[in-house]
TrEMBL record:
Keywords: Membrane, Transmembrane, Transmembrane helix. Pfam families: DUF5050 (PF16472). It comes from [Bacteroides] pectinophilus ATCC 43243. This is Prolow-density lipoprotein receptor-related protein 1-like beta-propeller domain-containing protein. InterPro entries: 6-blade_b-propeller_TolB-like, LRP1-like_beta_prop, SrfA-induced_signal.
Length: 340
């Protein structure tokens, strides 16, 4: 009788241990992995151009213009493209575990989306496109992954003002207002968001994501800010929309190129820019100090997106056809790329 009771006790203890181990293993496997707080989910240049491309760990995640903006992934050399989601996406951000994007499934061709969930919103999914989850289910503007938060422009007609700046925690546990002003959260560097304060005085400012305090970096009539190391790049509306950079260490301003800059993207040692009214109206590449300026193609271009091997862009009047040139190497011609 005692032996039987002892066996029962031992088996009960083993059952409790196994159950606890199972719970621990399940929790460990399904734990949410957080980021380094200084991680930026995409480059500021790509976010400023709509966040249509994002490179991470040997892959390019992109909005495929040949498939109505659906989410795709391909190798960094543009091989092995495959669809991850039918969602029409923009402002793509990626970390080691998830893809984050703004969904816009509006339009008559997207009626079927109503049957599968929200038409709009800020979403997170696995790196293979599975398990989509909404962080915000209504219309959103610019969105950028900053450490463990997505800062995004939040639209809600039931609030006043209706267009504000929010941040959502990547695990979905938090979604709070940061400011009533719709700052552009494109450029994140060392714990601060850098932006042109276009709703107020157009100064270049920074927001400390830990304290929420806002500081003026440079008094200017600026927009489209991009903080890269000690330099902040911007378009100066007081100087015929010239592309400028400001050295935050020695407080020296430099004009990189004459002519009206419409779009630009800084990547590593290069700057790509759409310039009007210069020697030739078109898209240019130059070094980050403005030297070695070269014309890539004549015409009107937009959606300039840079990755380690290629820079992608489109003609302004053709939002389907995609072109590319080497980001760093010699450019001989623009190449049309088909991803279907």
């Amino acid at each position: 009788m005692k032996e039987r009771r002892a066996k029962i006790i031992v088996l009960s203890i083993l059952a409790v241990i196994l159950a606890a181990a199972g719970v621990y293993i399940y929790s460990y496997i399904n734990r949410f992995v957080y980021n380094d707080p200084n991680l930026a989910g995409n480059t500021a240049g790509n976010i400023n151009n709509g966040g249509l491309f994002c490179e991470y760990n040997g892959y390019i995640y992109f909005s495929n213009p040949y498939d109505d903006g659906a989410l795709y992934r391909m190798n960094s050399d543009c091989t092995n493209a495959r669809k991850l989601s039918d969602d029409r996406v923009a402002y793509i951000n990626v970390d080691g575990n998830h893809i984050y994007y703004v969904r816009n499934n509006s339009g008559s061709d997207r009626v079927a989306s109503i049957l599968h969930g929200y038409l709009f919103g800020l979403y997170r999914c696995e790196l293979d496109g599975s398990n989509p989850a909404d962080l915000y289910e209504k219309q959103s503007g610019t969105a950028a992954l900053c450490g463990n938060y997505i800062y995004y422009q939040h639209y809600n007609t039931k609030e006043s003002p209706s267009f504000t700046l929010y941040r959502a925690k990547i695990d979905g546990s938090e979604d709070v207002k940061v400011s009533n002003t719709t700052y552009e959260p494109s450029s994140y560097y060392n714990g601060r968001l850098y932006f042109a304060n276009i709703d107020e005085n157009h100064n270049l400012c920074s927001l400390d994501v830990n304290t929420g305090s806002i500081s003026t970096v440079l008094e200017a009539n600026a927009y489209m800010a991009d903080m890269e190391g000690q330099y902040i790049y911007y378009i100066d509306m007081n100087d015929n929309y010239a592309l400028m950079r400001y050295n935050t260490a020695n407080r020296i301003k430099e004009k990189l190129i004459d002519g009206r800059c419409v779009h630009y993207n800084v990547y590593g040692t290069k700057v790509f820019a759409m310039i009007e009214g210069d020697d030739v109206h078109g898209i240019y590449r130059m070094n980050v100090d403005g030297s070695q300026k070269e014309l890539i193609a004549q015409g009107d271009f937009n959606n300039i997106s840079c990755t380690s091997q290629y820079t992608f862009f489109q003609y302004f009047n053709d939002n389907v056809t995609l072109y590319r040139v080497p980001t760093i190497g010699k450019i001989t011609t623009i190449e049309q790329i088909n991803v279907r």
